[in-house]
Each structure stands twice: as structure tokens, then as C-alpha cells.
Amino acid sequence: MRALTFDTALAFNPRYREPLPTDGDVLVKVRQAGICTTDLEIVKGYMNFRGVLGHEFVGEVVSGPDKKLVGERVVGEINFPCGRCDLCLAGLSNHCRNRSVLGILNHDGAFAEFVRVPVHSLHVLPKSVDDDSAVFVEPLAAAFQVLKQVKFDARQWVTVLGDGRLGLLVAQVLRNAGSPVRVIGKHPDKLALCEKWQIRSRALADIVPRHDQDVVVDCTGSAAGLELALQLARPRGTVVLKSTVAQGKPLNLAPVVVDEITIVGSRCGPFREAIRALAQKEIDVVSLIHRRMKIEQGVEAMELAGRPGVLKVLLLME
Ligand SMILES: [Zn+2]
Ligand SMILES: [Zn+2]
Questions:
Q1: Which residues on adjacent β-strands are paired with residue 75?
Q2: How far does the centroid of ligand 1 lie from the alpha carbon of residue 172, in Å?
Q3: pLDDT for the residue numbered 318
Q4: Helix or strand or coil: residue 246?
Q5: What is the SS3 assignment for 301?
Q6: How many CB atoms lie within 10 A of CB 65?
Q7: Residue 252 has what pLDDT?
Q8: How far is Cα of residue 48 from the mean position of the Cα atoms in its chain?
Q9: Among all ligands shown, which has an atom nearest to the Cα of 95?
Q10: CB of 74 closer than 8 Å to CB of 138
Q11: What is the whole-number distance in angstroms between the Cα of residue 196 and the centre of ligand 1?
Q12: What is the mean pLDDT of residues 117-140?
């Protein structure tokens, strides 16, 4: 099958081995998949992953243990837990000690014609969520995770740092939750999108950090984001870290102690809430699509997705 693979180098492979579904697994024919910063970081060495990239997808079930699923349009959760370890038994299966993660850890991903996934990872899509929206379910779920971890109210000062793919999803989720959120970014066209959504925004160049924000959500995808977030957060404030980067950088953590900052790491989130929000058109994701490209152009598509200011690049399998 055709696939975009990483093995010391990124390559389009027209004859990659098709996945063989084993017990409990489903074979999904991928319709389209989204490129995310995590994919770009993997190519820089993050997670030491080898194989087919990609974890944001929408597809159609081809075969599997549950015949009722065949032909259904689905999205899939990306963490595949063992179900037996202490963390799984404690209800923390996203943190399973033995997990594999689609296109990130020990499991071939969705930048391919077919992907093999556990049946329990799948969510059948309602008709009201089209393919272009569905491909955003995984990152939108990650945006909803912030609401699970931090309490927001209308009196707080909240900043989303970064106007990229994830930052613009997090900002919309927080706005819908009634938080007076502000986005700080570098790209005038992205900040104009915020204005369209009635979300306040400021150019990074105009910011003088005043240690006055109750909550700062770092969606910069860069190692420098945390440092600025710590300058923006008020004493006893909260910094939520959404960025995963291959290369850290030396960071002075003294401000965390002096200002008694709470740092919350935040990763994957609730798929159901993301699907519901998309079905009810509460989140504008279509404005985030930068370009659609064929899987054959996967290497160029990844290069494009890594350029500053480029939002979502979709890979089409057809
Ligand atoms: Zn992602
Ligand atoms: Zn487990």
C-alpha cells in the first residue's frame, strides 16, 4: 500500500506492507489525515519512532471482529492501552505503562491507505461531522483536555500562547466555556481569525510580560514557550503545557518557585466532547485547513506544514 514512513528519513513508500489485523483489531481504510506538530517533531527525533507516521485520521472500517462496524465512517483514539497495568486499572489508560500510540510509539500510523487499530479505540461519526471536520477530532479532544484539568471562570485573565494549529482550537474551546481568553501570536492572518471568532488577540511583538495572567496555556510548540508563559503568569497562577518538542533547552525554573506557579502538563483528551462540539458547529475548524495534498506528495506536505504560519495540511489517500 502507499504510505508515508519515517526511518532515519521521511519517505513516500508506494509498496509498504499492508497491516494484518489480529484479534480485536479493525482494518480501516483511511480517507484523509492531518499533519500535526508531533509528526514534525518525530522527524526531528521525538520518541525515536520508526514506521508509518500520522495519528489524526478519518476513515472507513473495512474488516474486524464487529461486523456491524464494517462500512462505518470512524475516527480513532490514539493511545492503545494494555488494560491490565496499575494505571489502566486506575482509569488512567491514556497513561498505560505498556501502551502503544498510533504513529508515535510502536504502532504504524494513519498516513497510509490502511491502518490497523483496536476496535475499542474507534468512534463512529454522526453524519453532521463531515470528513474535513472529523480529521480535527483528535487535536480538538486534546484542546478539551485543558478544561478537564484546570477550572476556568469568567473573571480570570487567560492567555493562549501561540496562534498555531492547536492554539486556535484551545482558544475556541475556552471561549465557548465562557472564559475571556486572549491569544498571543506572531501571524497577523491568524490573529485576524481570532477577531472573526470574537476572541481577543495581541501580536507577540507588542507584549510586555507583567506577571498578571491567571492561566497561560502554552501552545507554541517550541521550547521557548514555557519561559515566556512563566513571565506572563501571575504569582500562584497556572501554566498549562501543550507543547511536545524533541529538543528541550536549558530553562531557569527559579520563577516557578518564586511565583509558586502550578505547571500542568496536558496531552490527549475526550473524543466524545470533540465530536459533539463539531456536530453542533461550535468550533470553526474549516478555516484552519491550509491545503490538501495527496499522500504521494507527503514529503512536500510535511515540509509545508513545518513552515511558519502554515496551519493544517491534510493528506488525501484517494
Ligand atoms: Zn497530533
Ligand atoms: Zn496498561
A1: 123
A2: 17
A3: 85
A4: coil
A5: helix
A6: 12
A7: 86
A8: 19
A9: 2
A10: no
A11: 25
A12: 97
